[in-house]
Amino acid sequence: MNAILQKISNLTFGTELEYTYITREHAAQAVQSVVGGRIEHTGGAYDTWTVITPDGRQWKAVSDSSLGDRATSAEVVSPILTLVDMDALQEIVRALRKAGAKTPECTSQHVHIGVDGWTPRQIANLTRIYYKQEMLIMKAVGTLEKRIQRYTKLTDREFIERLEAIKPATNEELNRAWFGRLNMHPDHYDSHRYRGLNLNNVWRTGTVEFRIFNGVSHAGVAKANILFCLTLAAKALSAKCASTKQPRQYDEASAKYDFRVLLINIGMNGEEFKNTRMHLLKNLPGSAAWKNGRPAGR
């Protein structure tokens, strides 16, 4: 196992996968077909269907008002996972697609990275690394413009200014930088959550949330999205510092090259990440090998 895979294997993650054209019961059955265990319909406000695996972990299929028809939509919520669970997760995505699940523009994939035990400096590093490349990242993963306007807004510049002024050394200081006031117990639906990188859950569930991904029915894309978030997190953990000065301006002429350089810088080079790089680069224009396009005659 190479060095970056070793680092990300020590991290935890979870994901939420949104679908239409499938009931929550059928979504739970698709999950069960991969992980086994039993299904329980606990109902409630989210009409929850829970798959309890043999090891006791719980996958849930719940309703989400943003998905339109409540009768034929489901948000599949994973338990806490690690890299060894990736194959099963991919099989679940395939099973959901086979069961008829669709991913129109109203759907998305959210990725949560566990940050229990992280220092405020390390979480701040992650926000800085993400912010510096935000537009390039969103273009690479194809974040829809209408989602950027509402559910996946760009990083708040005032937060960045507070972050650099405070240079948080405690969770309280990081909290003040994020919310603009002390709010150690944020509500689940606090509006600060609607950012591409959401820190609300640092104080709720011990995770940071990436909300930049569109709905996904391709197992390779789901894996690539998660690996990208894990690798950014690993970079933030080991970085001595990170800067928010001069955020990268998106340039179509060099976009694919610029993002390839970012992937290499965070450790996503080598054969192990070949398929991941393919998925993350395919939406971008330009050449991955030449910053300003392939020279004439080459």
Task: Pick out its properties.
298 residues; alpha+beta; 2 domains; eight-stranded antiparallel β-sheet; 39% helix; globular
Mean pLDDT: 94
Outline, from the CA principal axes?
Answer: globular
| Count of distinct strands | 8
Q: From the helix content, strand content and strand pairing, which structural class follows? A: alpha+beta
Report the biggest beta sheet as strand number plus sense, adding barrel if it closes: 8 strands, antiparallel
Strand content: 15-25%
Q: N-to-C SSE series?
A: HEHEEEEHEHHHHHEEHHH
Q: Which bin fits the share of residues in helices?
A: 25-40%
**What is the quaternary state of this protein?**
single chain
Number of domains: 2
Q: What Rg do the Cα atoms give?
A: 19 Å
Strand order of the biggest β-sheet: 2-3-4-5-1-6-8-7
| Total helical segments | 11
Low-pLDDT segments, ≥5 res = none
Spatial gap, N to C terminus: 36 Å
Question: How would you explain this protein's 3D organization?
Answer:
The protein is of the alpha+beta class and 298 residues long. It folds into two domains: 1-15 and 110-298, no CATH class; 22-101. Helix content is 39%, strand content 15%. The protein is built from eleven helices and eight strands. The chain has helices at residues 3-9, 24-35, 86-98, 120-132, 134-141, 145-148, 157-166, 171-179, 219-238, 255-265, 274-281; strands spanning 13-20, 38-43, 48-52, 58-62, 73-77, 108-114, 197-198, 207-214. Strands 2-3-4-5-1-6-8-7 form an eight-stranded antiparallel beta sheet, covered by helices on one side. Helix 4 (120-132) packs across helix 9 and helix 9 (219-238) packs across helix 11 (274-281). The longest helix is centred in the last third of the chain and has 20 residues, at 219-238. 39% of the residues are buried. The mean pLDDT is 94.
